[in-house]
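Message: I would value a second opinion on how I read folds in token form. Give me a protein, with the fold worked out from its sequence. Write it directly below this note and I will take it from there.
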Amino acid sequence: MENSTYQCCFCDKKIQSDVTGLVVVTNWEKDKNSQQEQQLFCHMKCLKNAVSDKFPLYIADLIE
């Protein structure tokens, strides 16, 4: 994936390094046939700013 470019789904800017991928799944509580998924990319800083302070985002601690 060397030639790939990624754009942050929060700030709309290009991600230069340390690409963070999010997988969003709809209808989580239903059977797999009813689910859809999409992968999005973002800066970890943007994700941290978007998530409530009350929500534990333990993956952020692993890369800092």
Remarks:
- The longest strand covers residues 20-25.
- Residues 44-50 form the longest helix (7 residues).
- The chain has one domain: 6-57.
- The two ends are 23 Å apart (CA to CA).
